[in-house]
Amino acid sequence: MSDRSDGATTTVAAVGVSGTEPATSGPRLLAGSPIAAEIRARLTEDFAAFKERWGQTPTLAVVLVGADAPSAVYLQQILRTCQKVGVDGRLVEIGAEVTPEALCTEIESLNADPSVAGIIVQMPLPSHIPLRTVIDSIDPAKDIDGIHPRNAGLLSLGYDGFLPATAQASVEILKRSGIEIAGKRVVVIGRSNVVGKPAALLLIREHGTVTVLHSKTRDLGHHTRDAEILIVAAGRPGLVTGEMLSPGAVVVDVGINVVPDGAGGEKLVGDVDFESAKGVVSAITPVPGGVGPLTNALLLSHLLRAATDQAEARR
Ligand code: NAP
Fold first, then answer.
1. To 5 degrees, how large is the angle CA 178–CA 179–CA 181?
2. CATH classification of 164-292 is 3.40.50.720, yes or no?
3. Disulfide check for 188: which of 87, 231, 290, 307 has CB 3.0–4.6 Å away?
4. Do 64 and 122 contact (CB within 8 A), yes or no?
5. Which atom belonging to ligand 1 lies closest to the Cα atom of 296?
6. Is residue 15 over pLDDT 90?
7. Ligand 1: which of 131, 163, 191, 291 to mutate, judged by most atoms within 8 Å of the beta carbon?
């Protein structure tokens, strides 16, 4: 089965990280930005070719309900990436007081708009909006972040569908860095539908031996110390420290947390305490600059696939 990383199939040179060797002169940083730049360069060409062939520029509709500041920052990054690859990004801002019915009507009008190839709805939603209602209302053919039950079901069955981009990025960063997953003991912290669970399914697909941990797991360190590869997606800064890791482990830190920087400002950190982890692991993704940039690039590769499928279906 192929995944939906279309337009993103080049592999960055494999490296000598085995995932089992202790760090000697500091860990290798698994940077997502160069991989993302490579994917974007290819996408820029592919979107230009799409425009040439079909006479239109695909639009990504980004639905933001209410004024959630962290979401707004994330959305600006997506819209900037759209601009870089020649895609129209349309921010659909909806007031926090919107009713569930009115929000679904808005999404249905995006489903029906032939210029819109992909739709993402920024989470979290205001508490009065049932998540399921919104997820169900997105056309699965435009659900480029893989949240609709149809795409989630396809993923769990191992069939072709749109993958949740962050989960995909957490696995792609390993593959494109030449890190072997097959046969490894892989531990995932987090079981959300958008990150932890789909990441675990993708890692099983890559033949990892996968264990999933969550907030009710007893003795997290007991499990993490067994991991040859650890994916952390909990949204808890500093959750994983060096003494919870086995020497030579490879760590993918998906967490994005805003914390005080100690000088009156704020900074972004992951879920892993980088300072204590860096002397133990063989490779680790930085935050920022790891999984995040790759997520956006993969999302736009999904948009290309959606736009192409829709254009061919309309022909
Ligand atoms: P989420 O929906 O809040 O899920 C967090 C998961 O972590 C849950 O399964 C939770 O367990 C588990 N967890 C929380 N505290 C834990 C603890 N102390 N020990 C073990 N497990 C714990 O968050 P999410 O949407 O999956 O996002 C996870 C992180 O990824 C966040 O920091 C988010 O900002 C980041 N993120 C990054 C990107 C990117 O592009 N890099 C994109 C999206 C999200 P329960 O299920 O038991 O509650």
1. 130
2. yes
3. 231
4. yes
5. 40
6. no
7. 191
